[in-house]
Amino acid sequence: MIALLENIHVALPEMIMLSTACLALLADLFFRHKNKSIAFYIACTGLILAACVSYLYFGGYKTVILNGLFISDDVAHLMKFFVYLTVLLSFVYSHNYIDERQMPAGDYYVLGLFSTLGMMILISAHSLLTIYLGLELMSLPLYAMTAIRRTDSDASEAAMKYFVMGAIASGMLLYGISLVYGATGKLDLLEIANTIAANWQQQNTLLSFAVVFILAGVGFKLAAVPFHMWAPDVYQGAPTSVTLFISTAPKIAALAMAFRLLTISLVDITVQWQQIVLVMALLSAGFGNLLAVIQTNIKRLFAYSAISHIGYALFGVLAATAAGYSAALYYILVYSLMSAAIFGLIVLMSNPGTEIESIEDLKGLHKRNPWLAFMMLIVMFSMAGVPPTVGFFTKLLVIKALVDVHLTWVAVLALLFTVIGAYYYIRIVKIMYFDQPTNSEPILISKTNNLIYSVNCLSLLYLGIFPGALIAACINAFVN
Fold first, then answer.
1. Residues near 273 by Cβ (< 8 Å), separated by ≥ 6?
2. Cα(66)–Cα(115) distance, rounded to whole angstroms?
3. Secondary structure of 332-369 in HEC code, one letter for each residue
4. With a threshold of 0.90, does the pTM exceed it?
5. Angle between helices 468-479 and 74-100 (to 10 degrees)
6. How far is CA 421 from the centre of its chain?
7. How far apart, in whole angstroms, are the C-alpha atoms of residue 105 and residue 102?
8. How far apart are CA 144 and CA 165, in angstroms?
9. Has residue 200 got a pLDDT over 70?
């Protein structure tokens, strides 16, 4: 028992998050009548505390605890830090939105915290059991959050689609996991890799089937084509505060699941899963950008945009090198900040009784609030990959990783899809700056929200001008 708990301190961020979620639940139950925002303040405090601990652990030794169930390494700590950051931004941006619409605020924050705990377990999983546990703990609160506005039929429909398709995807992933266990007799990811290396030829057919089902489950959580069908409907139907949450941190955790499964346990059958990832990445980047061009609903547009960005992240995984994995990690971390900024603006602009649903609602934003329009311009340029924003470096690193492994034709297609994607991002900039506003009233947001949103957007410019530190952190995470 003592040996089992010897290095338990490396799971301190998970303990903090579990304690925060339970404390927020109890405080909301007993003290909500005294302070209706108590769950919000507890949630933010817990996230900041967990972020500080993960930051302090960064650069430490790789440690596997709990009999191989849980791993603490730089990849985990870096991903967790950005999970805390994007969840914190989601909570801060959504605070007024939730109160104005009289949504159950305590439920939103508690469900969000438990989902965050699931993401953290998924990111640090070192066993097939922990992967499935983390995945379900992340997903189940998201289904409930989607339907949090009980009187909204669109939200209920979106939650039902999300739940049914999520259950199918979980079943496929579980079936794939069971095939891996049947072929190897192991649950620990490293032991699976060793067993496959020793006798993969005898179990080649079974493992090939397992890879297909596992990638189907991973593809659903990432919203990669052809497992993307839920994303546009859920993004559009869910309350904007929930769309903001779904579009950021869960993407980081889903990519972490792909890293753990593909780069540790299935590393000896890389050639087999590369073929599937190639198809998923090309279809995601291609169809995501093409379908985004024809959208008029802003949340559906950014849902297809998210699908295309996942395609680019998968290009890094496709390279199957340390440089490729580092590029994919860098891409998903930066994308989470960009997505938080985009949906953050939609949430902040949504006044009581009005929702920002159409792209036309952004008409003349420059005249209504010049600073917000400038911040959104930075985000759009970053999404399109225009220098000197950080989006340029994300795409550059992914394309370089492809060229380095002689997948030049894939890199050329990736560049072509980037040009298509630039069209609808620049179109939004044109609407904000050159179209006449339908409503001439100025848009006012609180000084605190304005400051936080400005820091969020300007960080994309800062990371583009000084990209070295984050790129080095991503590279070192896979080299060590």
1. 211, 215, 262, 266
2. 22
3. HHHHHHHHHHHHHHHHHHCCCCCCCCEHHHHCCHHHHC
4. yes
5. 130
6. 20
7. 8
8. 14
9. no
pLDDT in tens, 39-48: 999 999 999 9
Return all residues near 402 (Cβ < 8 A) that are at least 6 apart: 315, 318, 319, 324, 408, 410, 411, 414
User: Residue type at 155?
Assistant: A
Percent of the chain as helix, strand, coil, to the nearest 5: 80, 0, 20
Q: Tens digit of pLDDT for each residue in 57-94? A: 887 788 888 888 888 888 999 999 999 999 999 999 99
Domain boundaries, the chain: 8-479
* Whole-angstrom distance, CA of residue 149 vs CA of residue 62: 43
| Contact assessment for residue 203 and residue 266, using Cβ atoms and an 8 Å cutoff | no
Place of tokens 């920002």: 356
Specify the DSSP element, H or E, that contains 64: strand 63-65
- The set of residues, in sequence order, having a beta carbon less than 8 Å from that of 189 and lying 6+ positions away, is 125, 126, 127, 128, 260, 261, 264, 265
How far apart CA 157 and CA 235 sit, in angstroms, is 12
Q: Looking at the predicted structure, is the pLDDT value of residue 6 above 80?
A: no
Is 56 buried (19+), middle (13-18) or exposed (0-12) by CB count in 10 A? exposed
**Residue 82's closest CA among 41, 50, 130, 43?**
50
Residue owning tokens 């034709």: 409
pLDDT of 1 over the 60 cut: no
Are 58 and 454 contacting, i.e. CB atoms less than 8 angstroms apart?
A: no
**pLDDT tens-digit profile of 127-182?**
999 999 999 999 999 999 999 888 888 888 999 999 999 999 999 999 999 999 98
